[in-house]
Write a structure and sequence with these properties.
Mean pLDDT: 79
Distance between the termini: 130 Å
Largest sheet: 5 strands, parallel
Low-confidence stretches: 1-8, 13-51, 856-985, 1447-1452
Number of helices: 46
Strand content: 5-15%
C-alpha cells in the first residue's frame, strides 16, 4: 500500500468506499447533494432531526396515489359527452391511444427509475439527470406548468359541479332568462369569481400546512373509488331494472326539461283539452287557436327513456360519432322531423343545444388530462421502502386498472344511455342532473358529491405538488431567475413557489372553460412524457456503462413509439398549443444553455453528442468536401510570452470578424520544453487561450503543444490539428515583428517554414501585417474601402475573404474595390468587362479598376538599389525557388468568365523579388493592412491556387541561379553562402524592378483603404532547385509522337506509292494532305477538347491527337487514291476533320467508351467516310480496270517499305493514349502479337488462295497489318496473348477474303470503288476489334483486374460520394469518380458508339462526296486517273516500263 500513499489524498481507499456504500440510507440523492452544496455556500445550518426511514409500499406509496391522480374530473364531467359526440368507436380509439401513450411512458419511466437510486422530484430529476440540465429544466418547467394548469382545471370542474348540479341558485351572475352568448358569458363569469375564491382558499390551506392536505387525501381517494363503484353498480342495475329518466323530444330535437312540466302539447282534464307548459313555450297564448311555432305545429312530441339499459341494444345507435357545430340541436337518430329551412331560428331556451363545436382532435385534447397522473408514484420515490421495485409495479398496475375502467366505461356508457342524453353535456334534458349520475346507483348524488370532493382533492394535490417541483428546479440553480423560488419557510415549505403557482393557476381560472384549459395542460404533460421516452431510448441506444435498469421489460423501440405517440397527440390536440408549448420549452432550453449554471450530471445528451460527433467525423472521412460546402476552417497560430499570455490578441479579433462563429476554429500555440517539466506552463497557456477566446467571442478549440523548440511545435500543430475529417484548411499567422534584427533571425526562419509547410499541406495561409493596428470587435468603420488586388487567380479565396469580413459589423459599411493588373498584351477594356461580369455571377457588389503596367528598361539606379535590397532581404533567401518556374503550365480555369482576367504572362508575376519594407507598402497608414494566403489553397473553385503572404509588399520569388556553382555546399542549400555578398542575376533584378513598380501602384491606389488584400504565388515545393525532366510532357509523349510521325509521313506515304505511274501522287499528296490535316485538326480539336477561356492550350499531346485525325483523313484518302485532284483532297480534309472532331467529342463526352487503339473512332470512321466519298465519286469506266492502275517491281518494293514502317511503329500507335505503365505495356505486347499472327497467316493464306501456290505481294503489303487493327479496341485490356494471337489470325483472314471477294463485289453491285481496300483492312477488322472489345468488357471484373479495373474502365468507377470510391482511392491515389456503370451498361454504350460512328461517318462521306463532285475542284478525267503527268513535272522516262511492256506485247 505504500506505493499508493501519494494517491490517498485524491483517491479514497477501497475499504472506505465499501463502508460508505454499505451504510447508505435511502434518502433522495439529488436533494442530499443539493443541501450539502447549500451548506457549503451559505454556511452551516442548525442540525436537523434524523430522517425517519420511509416505509411506504407499492400499494399505498404508488398504486393508490396514481389511481387518485389519474381518475379525475374528466371522467365524471366529460366522459359521457365524449362518448355521445365521438361515438363508442371513436371514443375507444381516443382512450386506447391515450392509455397506450401513458403505458409506454410508464415502461420508459420504470427503466429510468430502476437505474440506480431514484431522487425525490419525479420526472424532473429523471429527465434532467438523463438528458442534461437544458432538457431537464425545459421539461421540468413544462411539467410544472402542466401541473399548475391541472390545478386550475380541477378547480373549474369543482365549480362547474357546484353551480350546475349542487347549488345553481348560488350563481352571482344569473343565467335564468338569458340566451346564447349572454348566458354563456354569465356562466363563465360565475366560474371566474367562484374559481378565484376556491383557489384562494386552497392556496391558503396549502400554505398553512401540507399535513392537512395529506390527511384529506384518503377521504378524496375514497370518494373517487366509491363514485366509480356506483357507476358500475348502476350499469348492472340497468340490466335488471333501468332507471326512469324520461327525455322529451319535439320531432327529433331534445327539449330542455325546464321548458315543460308534461311531455305533451295538450292534455285532457275532465274531458276537456287544455294546453300544457310546453304549449305556452312555443305558442303566443294558452288558447288552442293560438299562433305557434311552425316546427312545433309540424312535429309531434315524443318521450323516450334516457337510460334504456345495457340490454336495450342502444349500443348500435351510439357506435359512431355525431359531431356538432356550436348552437346545433341535439337530435335523435331514426326519428322523422319536418323542418322548414327558411323558418327563423327558435329561442335557445327551448331546446338543448351544443355549447361548442366538437371534432375528433378536440375530444383528444379534452380527454388526455384524464390519463395523466402517472408520475405520482415516482414523485414520492423518497418515501418508498423500495422505489426500484414499487415504482414499476405500482405505476403499470395503476395504468392497467385505469385503462380497463376507461375502456369499459366507454362501451358501457354507449350501451346504457341514449345518444341525446350522452351528448347533453350539462344534463339540461334530464332535469339538470349530471349525466353520469343518472346512471349511478343508488343515487345520482353519490356521483355528484363524489366527483365534487374528488376534484377538490385533485386541485389541492396539484397546488401542493407544483410548488415543490418548482422549488426543486430552483434549488438546482440551472435557471438563474428562478432561484428566489427555491426559498421558503423555515420548515422548507415553498412559499414563494406557491405564490407563483397560484398566480399562474389564476390564468387558467380566468379562462374559465374546462374545455379550453384541458388542451393546455395536455400539451405540457405530453411534452414531459415525450422526453421521458426520449431519455430511455437514448440511454438504451447509447449503451452507456451506467445504464443497467433492474426493470428489464423495456426496449428502445417502445420508447420511440411512446415518444412518437406523444408528439402526434400534441399536434392532434391542438397544433397551435403544441407550437406554443414547444416554443416555451425551446426558450427555456436556450436560456439555460446560455445563461444557466453549468451542471455535469453525466447526462445522455453528452453521450449522444459524442456519438453524433463520431458519426459526423466518420462521414467526413468518406470523401473530400464539395466546393459548395467549402469555407475557411482556421488554425490560428499565436505566440505567448513568459507569463503564458497571448502576444497577438488582435489575431483572435480578426478571426472572430472573419468566422462569425461558423466552421472550425483552432487557436494553437507552442510551449518550449519537455512534457514532464512544462506541463503546468502548457495548462496556463491553454487557460490564457480560452480566456482570450471567450473575451473575443471566438467559438472554437484551443490547443497547446510542448516541444523542444517552437519550430517543431508549430509544425506539429499544422500537421495534427483537428480530428479526422474535421481539420483546418487555412492557417493564420502574424507577420514576424522586427524580422530584420539579428536577434529575431530564428523568428523569420520559423515563419518561412510555416509558409513552406502550409504550401506542402495544400493549406491556405493568411498573414496579417501590422496586426496590432487591426480594429477590435467593438470598433465600427462608418466608411472606407476594402481593396482587393487580384494579381493571380486563386480559385475564389481572395473574393471570399472580403465577403466574410463584411458580414461582421466592424466592416459592414466598408465598400469593396477590386484591382487587377494588365500588361502590354492585355485588353484592359475587355478585362474590366469580364471582371464585372464575373463579379455579377458571384453576386458581389464592388468597384472594378484595371491597372496597366508596361515593361520597361531597368535603370542603373534601380539595379544598384536592387543589389542593396537583395542583400537585406534575408527571408527570401531561404526560399530556393525552382529554375523553371516561368515555365509552369497555365492553370486550367473552369469559370468561363475568368479567361481575360487571368494574367497572360504568368512568368512576369512569378518573378517578383522582395523590396525593403520601409520603401514600400510598409509606409502605409496603420489602417492599411494586408491579408494573404498561400499556394495550393483548397478553395471553392480550384484545388490549387497559387498564393503567397505579402507583408507590406513582400512577395515570394524565384531565386534564379541560387543553386549554380554551389560546390561542396550542394547538400545543404544554406551552407557556404554569404547572404550579404550575393549578387542577383539579371532576371532577378528585372523581377525586383517589377515588384517595386507594382508596390508603387498599390501605394498610390490604395493609400486610403482600410484593408488591402493581396494574393501572390507561393513558394515552390522543390527546395533543392532540382527539376525532374522525365516528368515533362516532352520526355513522356514526344517519343510516341515521333513514332506516329513515321507512320503518317513514311508509312502511309510509301504505302500509297504502289501504282507504277502514281508514285509522286501517292507520296506527295500524302505529305500535302497530312500537313494540312494536322494544322486544321489542331484548331478544330482544340476548340472541342483543349479550349480554356477562349484559348487553345497547345502541347505535345495536342499534336498526337491531331495526327490521329490526320490518320483518319489518310485512310479515307486510300479509297479515292489516284482519282482525285489535290484540291479535292484538301477540301475532303477540310470537311472530314470537323466531322471527325465533332464525332470524337460527342462519343467521348456523352457515350464515354473505351477505345484505346482507335478501332471505333479512327478505323471505322475513316473507312466508312472514305466509302461514302468513293460511292458518290463512282466512275463506271474504272470497273473494268484501268491501263495505269497497275504496279511495277519498283513501286511494289516502295509500297512494301511503307508496310514495314507501319508494321514496326504500329505498337506505338495503339499504345499512345493508354495509361502509362502496365496498360501501355499490355498494349505494346498485344499489338505485336496480333501483327505477328496476321503476318504469318497472311503468308499462308496468300499461297493457298493463289492458283500457282505463290505469294502475292499485294497481300503482304496490306493483310499483314490487319492484326494491329483487330486488337485495337481491347489492346489495353487483359485479353491474354492467346486471344491477341487469335484476333490477329481472324483479322488477317477477314481482310484477305475481303480483298479476294468482297471488294470486287462492292464495286460491281454497290458502286463502291475501294481503291486501296480500306474496307478490308480497316472496316472488317475494325468491326471484329469492336466485337472483341465488347466481349472483353463483359468479362472484365475485379477478380481478374483487381482495383485497376476502375483505371482501365474509368467510367465503371463508383460515383462521387460512394464509400467504395474512397476505399479505392486509398489503393489507387488519384482515381477519379466514374459513372458507376456495370459491364453490361458499358458494353451497350460501346455498341451505340459503333453504330453512331458508322452512321455519322457514312453520311458525312456522302455529303463530302457531293461537294467534291463540283467541277471547280478540277477532278481528273478517267484517262488521267492514276497518272502523275496531270499534276507534276515528270521525267521523260517515268512511263518507260509501261511503254516497254506495250512494245513487247506488240512484237508478240
Amino acid at each position: 500500500m505504500a506505493l499508493f500513499e501519494e494517491e490517498m489524498d485524491t483517491s479514497p481507499m477501497v475499504s472506505s468506499l465499501l463502508s460508505s456504500l454499505a451504510n447508505y440510507s435511502n434518502l433522495p440523492t439529488g436533494s442530499k447533494e443539493h443541501e450539502e452544496a447549500e451548506n457549503n455556500e451559505e454556511g452551516a445550518r442548525p442540525s436537523k432531526k434524523p430522517v425517519k426511514a420511509p416505509q411506504l409500499g407499492t400499494l399505498i406509496g404508488v398504486y393508490l396515489p396514481c389511481i387518485q391522480n389519474i381518475f379525475g374530473v374528466i371522467l365524471f364531467l366529460r366522459m359521457t359527452w365524449m362518448v355521445g359526440v365521438g361515438g363508442v368507436f371513436g371514443s375507444f380509439i381516443i382512450v386506447f391511444m391515450c392509455c397506450s401513450t401513458t403505458m409506454l411512458t410508464a415502461i420508459s419511466m420504470s427503466a429510468i427509475a430502476t437505474n440506480g437510486v431514484v431522487p425525490a422530484g419525479g420526472s424532473y430529476y429523471m429527465i434532467s439527470r438523463s438528458l442534461g440540465p437544458e432538457f431537464g429544466g425545459a421539461v421540468g418547467i413544462c411539467f410544472y406548468l402542466g401541473t399548475t394548469f391541472a390545478g386550475a382545471m380541477y378547480i373549474l370542474g369543482c365549480i362547474e359541479i357546484l353551480l350546475i348540479y349542487i347549488l345553481p341558485q348560488a350563481a352571482i351572475f344569473k343565467i335564468e332568462g338569458l340566451e346564447g352568448p349572454e348566458a354563456e358569458e354569465a356562466l363563465l363569469n360565475n366560474m371566474r369569481v367562484y374559481g378565484t375564491i376556491v383557489l384562494s382558499l386552497m392556496s391558503l390551506l396549502v400554505f398553512v400546512g401540507v399535513k392537512y392536505v395529506n390527511k384529506l387525501a384518503l377521504v378524496f381517494l375514497a370518494c373517487v373509488i366509491l363514485s366509480i363503484v356506483a357507476v358500475y353498480a348502476g350499469v348492472i342495475k340497468t340490466a335488471i331494472d333501468p332507471p326512469v329518466f324520461p327525455v322529451c323530444l319535439l320531432g327529433n330535437r331534445t327539449l330542455m326539461s325546464k321548458g315543460y312540466d308534461i311531455c305533451a302539447k295538450v292534455m285532457d282534464i275532465d274531458n276537456e283539452t287544455v294546453t300544457t307548459k310546453l304549449w305556452r313555450t312555443f305558442c303566443d297564448s294558452d288558447s288552442l287557436n293560438a299562433t305557434c311555432d311552425e316546427y312545433f305545429n309540424n312535429n309531434n312530441v315524443t318521450e323516450i327513456q334516457g337510460i334504456p339499459g345495457v340490454t336495450s341494444g342502444i349500443l348500435a345507435e351510439n357506435l359512431f360519432g355525431n359531431y356538432l357545430e356550436k348552437g346545433m340541436f341535439l337530435e335523435k337518430r331514426g326519428i322523422a322531423s319536418k323542418a322548414d329551412p327558411d323558418s327563423p331560428p327558435p329561442g335557445s331556451n327551448r331546446y338543448v343545444l351544443a355549447d361548442i363545436t366538437s371534432f375528433f382532435t378536440l375530444l383528444v385534447g379534452i380527454y388526455f388530462p384524464s390519463v395523466t397522473g402517472i408520475m405520482a408514484g415516482s414523485n414520492r420515490s423518497g418515501d418508498l421502502r423500495d422505489a426500484q421495485k414499487s415504482i414499476p409495479i405500482g405505476t403499470i398496475a395503476a395504468i392497467t386498472t385505469t385503462s380497463i375502467v376507461y375502456m369499459s366505461t366507454v362501451i358501457l356508457f354507449g350501451a346504457c344511455i341514449e345518444g341525446v342524453v350522452l351528448r347533453d353535456k350539462f344534463g339540461e334534458g334530464v332535469n339538470g342532473n349530471l349525466v353520469i349520475g343518472t346512471l349511478a346507483w343508488p343515487s345520482p348524488w353519490v356521483i355528484v358529491f363524489g366527483s365534487f370532493f374528488s376534484t377538490c382533492g385533485a386541485g389541492l394535490q396539484s397546488l401542493t405538488g407544483a410548488p415543490r417541483l418548482l422549488q426543486a428546479i430552483s434549488r438546482d440553480g440551472i435557471i438563474p431567475f428562478l432561484r428566489v423560488f427555491g426559498h421558503g419557510k423555515a420548515n422548507g415549505e415553498p412559499t414563494w413557489a406557491l405564490l407563483l403557482t397560484t398566480s399562474i393557476c389564476e390564468i387558467g381560472i380566468l379562462i374559465a372553460s374546462l374545455d379550453a384549459v384541458a388542451p393546455i395542460l395536455s400539451m405540457f404533460f405530453l411534452m414531459c412524457y415525450m422526453f421521458v421516452n426520449l431519455a430511455c431510448a437514448l440511454q438504451t441506444l447509447l449503451r452507456t456503462p451506467n445504464w443497467r435498469p433492474r426493470f428489464k421489460f423495456y426496449h428502445w423501440a417502445l420508447s420511440f413509439l411512446g415518444m412518437s405517440l406523444c408528439l402526434s397527440l400534441m399536434f392532434i390536440c391542438s397544433w397551435y398549443y403544441a407550437m406554443v408549448a414547444m416554443g416555451i420549452a425551446t426558450c427555456i432550453y436556450k436560456y439555460i444553455e446560455f445563461c444557466g449554471a453549468e451542471k455535469e450530471w453525466g447526462d445522455g445528451i453528452r453521450g449522444i453528442s459524442l456519438s453524433a460527433a463520431r458519426f459526423a467525423l466518420m462521414r467526413l472521412e468518406e470523401g473530400p468536401p464539395h466546393t459548395k460546402n467549402w469555407r475557411p476552417q482556421m488554425l490560428v497560430l499565436v505566440s505567448v510570452d513568459a507569463e503564458q499570455n497571448v502576444e497577438q490578441p488582435r489575431l483572435l479579433s480578426l478571426t472572430n470578424q472573419l468566422k462569425a462563429g461558423k466552421g472550425l476554429t483552432i487557436v494553437g500555440t507552442s510551449v518550449q520544453g519537455t512534457f514532464l517539466d512544462n506541463f503546468t506552463e502548457a495548462q496556463r497557456a491553454d487557460q490564457s487561450l480560452r480566456k482570450l477566446m471567450e473575451t473575443e467571442k471566438v467559438k472554437g478549440f484551443s490547443q497547446v503543444v510542448i516541444s523542444s523548440n517552437l519550430r517543431d511545435g508549430t509544425s506539429h500543430l499544422i500537421q495534427v490539428g483537428g480530428l479526422g475529417g474535421l481539420k483546418h484548411n487555412s492557417v493564420m499567422v502574424s507577420w514576424p515583428r522586427n524580422w530584420k534584427q539579428p536577434e529575431c533571425h530564428e523568428q523569420f526562419r520559423n515563419f518561412i517554414e510555416v509558409v513552406r509547410e502550409t504550401t506542402v499541406a495544400s493549406l491556405a495561409l493568411l498573414v496579417p501585417k501590422n496586426i496590432a493596428s487591426y480594429p477590435s470587435n467593438g470598433e465600427r468603420f462608418t466608411e472606407g474601402h476594402i481593396d482587393v488586388w487580384w494579381i493571380v487567380h486563386d480559385g475564389g479565396m481572395l473574393m471570399l475573404l472580403p465577403f466574410l469580413l463584411r458580414q461582421h459589423k466592424v466592416w459592414r459599411k466598408c465598400k469593396m474595390r477590386i484591382f487587377t493588373v494588365a500588361q502590354m498584351d492585355d485588353n484592359s477594356i475587355q478585362m474590366k468587362k469580364d471582371l464585372i461580369t464575373f463579379l455579377y455571377h458571384l453576386r458581389i457588389d464592388a468597384v472594378v479598376e484595371v491597372v496597366e503596367m508596361h515593361d520597361g528598361d531597368i535603370s542603373a539606379y534601380t539595379y544598384e538599389k536592387t543589389l542593396v535590397m537583395e542583400q537585406r532581404s534575408q527571408i527570401l533567401k531561404q526560399m530556393h525557388l525552382t529554375k523553371n518556374e516561368k515555365e509552369r503550365e497555365i492553370q486550367s480555369i473552369t469559370d468561363i468568365s475568368r479567361g481575360s482576367i487571368r494574367r497572360k504572362n504568368p512568368s512576369a508575376l512569378r518573378s517578383q523579388h522582395s523590396v525593403d519594407e520601409g520603401a514600400s507598402v510598409a509606409e502605409q497608414t496603420e489602417d492599411q493592412v494586408q491579408l494573404i494566403h498561400s499556394k495550393n489553397t483548397s478553395t471553392p473553385a480550384s484545388p490549387t491556387s497559387p498564393a503567397v503572404p505579402a507583408g507590406g509588399a513582400t512577395t515570394w520569388t524565384d531565386n534564379k541561379g541560387a543553386e549554380k556553382g554551389k560546390g561542396p555546399s550542394e547538400g545543404n542549400p544554406e551552407a557556404g553562402r554569404d547572404p550579404f555578398n550575393m549578387k542577383p542575376s539579371q532576371v532577378d533584378v528585372r523581377r525586383m524592378h517589377t515588384a517595386m513598380r507594382l508596390n508603387e501602384v498599390i501605394m498610390k491606389k490604395s493609400k486610403e483603404a482600410k484593408l488591402v488584400l493581396l494574393n501572390m504565388p507561393g513558394p515552390p515545393k522543390n527546395r533543392n532547385n532540382r527539376t525532374k525532366p522525365m516528368e515533362n510532357a516532352v520526355y513522356k509523349d514526344y517519343p510516341i509522337f515521333t513514332d506516329i510521325q513515321v507512320i503518317i509521313f513514311l508509312g502511309f506515304g510509301c504505302l500509297f506509292a504502289f501504282f507504277r505511274l502514281y508514285g509522286f501522287g501517292g507520296m506527295v499528296f500524302n505529305l500535302l494532305t497530312a500537313a494540312f490535316s494536322i494544322q486544321w485538326a489542331i484548331l478544330v480539336q482544340g476548340y472541342f477538347q483543349f479550349s480554356h477561356d477562349g484559348k487553345i492550350h497547345l502541347g505535345v499531346i495536342n499534336l498526337i491527337y491531331a495526327e490521329f485525325a490526320c490518320a483518319v483523313v489518310l485512310i479515307s484518302f486510300g479509297a479515292v487514291l489516284g482519282k482525285t485532284s489535290p484540291l479535292q483532297l484538301l477540301v475532303m480534309a477540310l470537311l472530314e476533320v470537323p466531322v471527325f472532331a465533332l464525332t470524337e467529342w460527342a462519343v467521348l463526352k456523352y457515350l464515354k467508351i473505351n477505345d484505346s487503339g482507335g478501332s471505333i473512332l479512327i478505323h471505322l470512321f475513316a473507312c466508312y467516310f472514305g466509302l461514302g466519298v468513293t460511292f458518290v465519286l463512282y466512275r463506271p469506266h474504272l470497273n473494268e480496270g484501268h491501263a495505269k492502275a497497275n504496279t511495277s517491281y519498283q513501286s511494289d518494293i516502295l509500297s512494301l517499305i511503307g508496310t514495314l514502317f507501319l508494321w514496326v511503329f504500329w505498337p506505338s500507335f495503339n499504345s499512345s493514349l493508354t495509361l502509362k505503365g502496365d496498360d501501355q505495356h499490355r498494349a505494346i505486347l498485344h499489338t505485336f502479337i496480333g501483327l505477328s499472327a496476321s503476318t504469318l497467316t497472311a503468308f499462308a493464306l496468300s499461297a493457298m488462295l493463289n492458283k500457282n501456290g505463290k505469294i502475292t505481294i499485294s497481300d503482304i503489303q496490306n493483310v499483314t497489318l490487319a492484326g494491329g487493327v483487330t486488337v485495337g479496341a481491347s489492346v489495353d485490356m487483359m485479353i491474354t496473348p492467346a486471344a491477341a494471337y487469335a484476333l490477329g489470325m481472324m483479322g488477317c483472314t477477314a481482310c484477305m477474303l475481303g480483298y479476294k471477294y468482297l471488294s470486287p463485289f462492292l464495286a460491281q453491285r454497290f458502286r463502291i470503288q475501294d481503291q486501296c481496300g480500306i474496307h478490308n483492312l480497316h472496316g472488317l477488322t475494325g468491326l471484329i476489334s469492336c466485337a472483341a472489345g465488347i466481349c472483353a468488357i463483359l468479362m472484365a471484373d475485379e477478380e481478374m483486374y483487381g482495383p485497376s479495373l476502375y483505371e482501365i474502365f474509368s467510367h465503371r468507377a463508383p460515383v462521387e460520394g460512394d464509400p467504395k470510391l474512397h476505399k479505392l482511392q486509398i489503393l489507387i491515389p488519384g482515381l477519379q469518380p466514374g459513372l458507376g456503370r456495370t459491364a453490361r451498361e458499358q458494353a451497350l454504350f460501346q455498341v451505340a458508339a459503333v453504330f453512331s460512328t458508322i452512321g455519322v461517318s457514312t453520311l458525312g462521306g456522302i455529303l463530302t462526296g457531293f461537294v467534291l463532285k463540283l467541277p471547280y475542284l478540277a477532278p481528273p478525267s478517267d484517262v488521267f486517273c492514276f497518272d502523275d503527268q496531270l499534276f507534276f513535272e515528270v521525267p521523260p522516262d517515268y512511263d518507260s516500263p509501261l511503254k516497254l511492256n506495250n512494245i513487247d506485247d506488240s512484237a508478240a
